[in-house]
Input
Amino acid sequence: MSRFRTRIAAVPALVTAAVMLMCSCSAGAGSGDAGGKKDGAPAVKSGQRLTAALGTAKDSQGPAPAVQGARAGGTIKIANLKDYSHLDPQKIYAGEGYSTSLLWGRQLTQYQVVDGKPKLVGDLATDTGRSSDGGRTWTYTLKDGVAWEDGQPITSEHIKYGIERTFAPGFELGPTYWPEWLTDSEDRTAAVKKYGGPKSGGLDAIETPDAKTVVFRFPKPQSDVPYMAAQSSSSPVREDKDTGTGYDTRPFATGPYKIVEHKQNQSLTLERNPHWKAETDPIRHQYAERFEFTFGKKILNTAQEVFNGRGDGADTVTTKSEVPPELYAEAQRDPKKKALLVAGSQGAYTNDLYIKNSRVTDPEARKAIHYLFPREQARQVLGGPRVGDLATTLSSPAVVGWKKYDLYPVKPTGDIEKAKEHLARAENKPETLTYAYKTESPQDDRLAQVLVDAFAKAGIKLVTKPLEPAAFTSEVFRGDAPYDLWISTNSVDWPTPSTLLPDGYHSKLDALSNGIRYANPAVDKELERIADIGDAQRKADALIDLEQVVMKDVPVVPFLYTSVTQFRGENIGGAAIHPIYGSIAAAGLYLKKS
Amino acid sequence: MAEVHSRGRPEPPSRGPFATAARAFRRDRTGMAALVVVLLCGLLALAAPLLAAAYGKNPTTHYGQDVPGLLSAEGLPVLPNGGISAEHWFGIEPGLGRDVLTQLLYGMRTSLLVALASVAVIAVVGVVLGVTVGYLSGLADRAFAFVCNVLLAFPTLLLLLALSPVIQTRFVDPGENEPAWMQFTSLILVFAAFGWVPLAMVLRTAVRSLREREFIEAARALGASRRHIVLRELLPNVWAPVLVHITLAVPGIVTAEAALSFLGVGINEPVPDWGRMISRGSEVFYDDPTYMVFPGVAILVFVLAFNLLGDAVRDALDPRTAA
Output
């Protein structure tokens, strides 16, 4: 019986094979679209000089400059693969979360974006903050007419309570700057010993002389308070609405929208907040009537719906995901689909090849790695120029005061000969190096193969260690981890250099912060001197100068100023990558027709 | 022995039944065609290094990255049809730019090595356990049935998915790559550990009915030892099902191995592998459909040939269907 079945099956199978062979002719990347190539390069300008200027009190007044052509009404659909792990403003600590939470949350200050250029302005506050006493005291005044979603006014007490929460147990996930600065502590662990959050009473370092005024008193001069005041942790929280862990799924709104329903891992629905007044808000708009977030659908499916305008595709946008690599080239070829791509610099992110300095101790060996690193080929397997421009500096051009430098110029494909010269000069030449990487997708394996190839050409055996994404951080970022190299993305917490070197290159930092175990006593001393500078501009300049001293030692090899390419439905207007947060800014979206 | 058989080249024994079977097989044109394809595949796999040397390429060099003009900045082949050219007959791999033809040839080695080694272990374990238990029956038989049921209920795929990272972290020194032999061994062991069950169960049933036949009775009456009865009397009579089972097991293991590599728990980079090629093909399917076709068609033809061969072997050995 089965004799019959298989043999008859053989005929259609062979026919299928033949048809597949015939249909599989495909155009090459170089053919036919030469015209498309000229204007084909996406409008990605990663690492543009997007430095956020400080706005004045006048800039801080509402309403926000209107988006050209915008109209009100309709429901915007946001399809993301995963739900937000945190919505509690004091727990959000990621660019996209910052950006999207602007829909319902307001902070002391915030970035106003006009024509893609960011400017830090007062949000709930009338300006970006007034400092006195050499940067030890910072005063904020709240605007008139700012209110919660139930109409009650936002007061200085609410700001104070919100920041006090960052000390409390369970809030370790958020940024640690408020606890550290307000108590002058090395790290959060030391800070919470001095003050344990709202349960242990009020924090003396934050004063609220009246309902409109907040005064921060820092033991040491702090220059970056206006930027920290824009972080989600600087959002007000009302004690009577603080539902503890419940606040993490449904925070109380101060922005143009309020959360009406949140089914975890399924949907999140926002409606207009009637108590939000446009004239108090220089950043946000209230164009759409509703926002409907859905979670769980595969991005490839979402992208296909959006590109083809099927179902809700035209009204859909994604804030978290990039264009799937499978669809990218097709979207580049088809002008209609290309118009739906939203590309931009991914905030102040840079992607680098990290070298564990405590294992590759010889600077000549690290220089050899710098020269042999095949930047162009590595970027090619990651998707090509759309993932970012090749970097020569540690910090991103989006950082205040950034200077371009290229200490050891090398051609993009790497220079094996030069690498060999440096290896010959090295006192202890590494024979074998270990490269650890997260196995998030097969492209990580291919990137590893590119590196193996380049290191082999220079005579170094590269051992590749694929690690589970969940285990990567704990495996690699510990003092005695047996890995020499890894590729990682880093970003400053806000666009000044003050969270880059001080939080990653001081030898006293633990392996979680200073994972490469960089140690240079001269740099340590300079960092300690800079820490006491209260003037933001002078501090930024000093840090930018110090960066070149650090990079002379080649502690890391700069790779990319990363870019993102996202997509929007045909009917979605105002979609642009937020220059600071690096994803489509939901607060500027509108529907072209509804 | 199993390896020889799995290639479908049973040595024609001098005894009658096999000679008859060989004659029947030779008359089966589909079977002969399948045998030719299978032998060709085996030959290609064995001669892969020679062929690659003659062709002037190897499966690990990143041609597309080393030679400018082969891949676009996005990593797609510049030439149409997946970069097919006089240099690269089957085109080049998008991204890393390796040569597809040599990848295919070496990928076949990977598939065949895993399949044949697993089948060898399956045949030995299955025959020994199946025949012995079938002859012994009693407590041994009940224990055997229980073990078989447990193994059949085992989620093999999940086990492999879970096992792969454990092997990586437990048995591989942090300063060393996971050796290729370790990947192969763990795959072969897992395939073998679960693959012998159906064979052994078939043999157990066959032996149970043979046990009551007159020639066994006669041997027993003559005072033959158990060993003699199992090895000399029973075994020669169960070769037919063994042969059929292992020829049909090979394509099954080839597809299973490809599926595992597709999921990322089979054979890792840089060892060439068909399953991984197909997985890469699915990533670039919209832009470079040609790349998917070569491993897809190769696996289709390969598995089909083995299945047809297995069918033909069964037909030739089965007196009811052999004319």
Summary: Residues 100-136 of chain B form the longest helix (37 residues).
